Amino acid sequence: MTERKQFATAVPSTIPQRGHTATDLQLPDRTSENRSRTLLQDICLIKPTRALYDVLRRRVAGQDDAIDALVCSYGRSLSGLRDTGRPLLTALLLGPTGVGKTETARAVAEALHGSDKAMVRVNCEEYAHSHQIAKLLGSPPGYVGHDIEPLLSQRHLDRAYVDRLRARDEHRRAALKDAGQTERDQGRYDVLALKEAAGSDAGSQAGRLPACRSIVLFDEIEKAHPAVWNALLGILEEGTLTLGDNSTTDFTDSIVLLTSNVGSHEMSRLLGGRQLGFSNADESAPPPQEELREAVLAAARKTFPTEFLNRFDDMLVFRSLERRHLLEIFDKFLAEIHDRAVRQVGIPLLVKVSRRARDLIVDEGIDPRYGARPLRRTIERMLVDPLSRFIAAERLRPGDIVEVRRNGDELRFLRDRVEKARGAA
Fold first, then answer.
1. Could you tell me which of 292, 291, 261, 1 has the C-alpha nearest to residue 125?
2. Which of 41, 164, 242, 352 is the most exposed place for a label (fewest CB within 10 A)?
3. What does the pLDDT read at residue 315?
4. What pLDDT does 209 receive?
5. Which stretch of DSSP H or E encloses residue 407?
6. Domain containing 111: what range?
7. Is 71 exposed, middle or buried (0-12, 13-18, 19+ CB in 10 A)?
8. Quick one: pLDDT at residue 13?
9. Cβ–Cβ under 8 Å, residues 215 and 119
C-alpha cells in the first residue's frame, strides 16, 4: 500500500504507465470540487475527415451508408488510439458491378493526396496465375526478373506522398526566396522535408495526426490467384510485406482497399430479377438492405477463406443504383464535359441539357447488367461526339452556350451566341 501511494505521488497523471494498471493509480480527490457530467454523443464526421466526406459525396452517388462507414473508420485511425502495427484502414468493398466501388478508392486518393491517380492500383485480373505474382512481390536473387522492382515496393507505395512533400518544399523555398531569406534557411526546410519523407518521428513527437502515406487498391480481388490472398494476410494483420529480395514494405501508414463483385448474383436474385448494379424504383418494394447485405456477405464467406475475411476493419456492401442515382451521375458527367472543354480544348462552353433530353439520355444509358457504366458510353455517343464535331468544324467558339433539347427520339443542339456590335472596341 505504501509503494502504491509513492507511485501515485511521483506520477500525478491519471494515465497508467507501462507496467502498471489503472488500479495502481490514485484518482484525484474531487469531493471538494464542482463536478459536471455530460453525455457524449458518438460522432463520425469530425474536422479532419470533412474533406474526405465531401469528396466522397461529390463523386459517389447512392452509397451513403458505405461512405459514412468509411469516413468513420478513417476518423478512428486519426484519433491516435489505433494499433500502430496495422494499416491505417483496411476495407473490403462488396457489391454489383458499376455502383462506385473503384470510384470510391479514386475519391479517397483525391481527398487525401490531391489526385485520383495518386494511389497504387493492382488489377487482380493480371495476377490470376501463380507465376504472375512475381510482378507484385519480385523474384528472389538469381531468378529471372530479380532486377525488376516489384509493384509493391516501398518506393512505389510512397511515390505520391514524396511527390507531395517535394512540391510543398519547392513552394516553401520559393516563398523564402521571395521574402529574401538566406540559403541556410532554405536548407533547413530541405532537411525537415527529407526527414519527414524518410519516416522521422519528429512529427509524431510534436503531437500531429498520423499522415496517410499511400493508398493501395486491389481491384476485383476474387480474380486473383489465392497466393495473392495469402500475401495479403500479412499486410492486413501486421502491416508488412516481405518481397522476393527479402526486403520489407511497410503498410502501417497506408489505406488498403479491396473491391469484389462477389455476391452480385445473389443480390440480383433478391431484387426480383433486376440484374447487376441497377434497380427500378417503380417496381415492387425491394427487400431490406440488411437482407441484401447478409446475402452478399454469405457469398463472400463461400469464396474467401475465413482467416482472410477476419482481418478487415470493415466489409462494406454497396447497394444497387436506382434511377434517381443515375440522374445524379448524369450531372457529374456533364460537369466533367465542361471541365474537359476548358482543360483540353481551351474552349469554355456551357452545355444546357433540358429535362426531357436528360431523360432520353438516361433511358438510353440504362443497362441492368452493367449498372451505371453504360451511361458514360451513352453520354459520349449522344453528347460528346456531336460537340466534338462542332468544335472541329469551328462552329463553336469560346463563350458559346449550347442548348440540348429533345426532338422525339433524337437530340437537337442549339447555339446561343452573343454577337458584338460592329462598332464595339
1. 261
2. 41
3. 92
4. 38
5. strand 401-407
6. 83-158+213-317
7. buried
8. 46
9. yes
Q: Based on the fold, state whether residues 300 and 219 are members of the same structural domain.
A: yes
pLDDT score of 366: 79
Say if residues 151 and 249 touch (Cβ distance below 8 Å).
Answer: no
Nearest residue to 312 (alpha-carbon basis) of 151, 156, 87? 87
pLDDT value for 25:
52
Q: In what order do the strands lie in the sheet with 350-353?
A: 350-353, 401-407, 410-416
Cα separation, 353 vs 248, whole angstroms: 53
Question: What CATH number is attached to the domain comprising 236?
Answer: 3.40.50.300
Q: With contact defined as beta carbons under 8 Å apart, do 311 and 90 qualify?
A: yes
Q: What is the DSSP string of 52-114?
A: HHHHHHHH--S-HHHHHHHHHHHHHHHSS-S-TTS-SEEEEEES-TTSSHHHHHHHHHHHHHS
| pTM across the whole model | 0.75
The x, y and z cell numbers of residue 351, run together, are: 452545355
Picking from 317, 352, 369, the residue at the C-terminal end of a domain is 317
Q: CB neighbours (10 Å) of residue 272?
A: 13
- The helix/strand count (H/E) of the chain reads as 17, 10
Whether residues 283 and 329 share a domain: the answer is: no
| Secondary element (H or E) of residue 198 | none
- Nearest alpha-carbon partner for 362 in 381, 379, 384: 379
Task: Supply the pLDDT for residue 41.
Answer: 55
Count the residues in the chain: 425
* Rounded Cα–Cα distance for residues 2 and 10 (Å): 12
Instruction: Give CA angle at 378 (377, 381), nearest 5°.
Output: 90
147 shares a domain with 122: yes
The predicted structure's pLDDT at residue 189 = 54
Helix ranges, 341-372 (H): 355-364
User: In this structure, are 287 and 224 located in the same domain?
Assistant: yes
Cα 350 versus chain centre, distance: 30
In a domain, 73, yes or no: no
Query: What pLDDT sits at residue 74?
Result: 87
Distance CA 391, CA 398 (A): 10
Give me the CATH number covering residue 377.
1.10.8.60
Residue that finishes a domain, picked among 317, 337, 360? 317
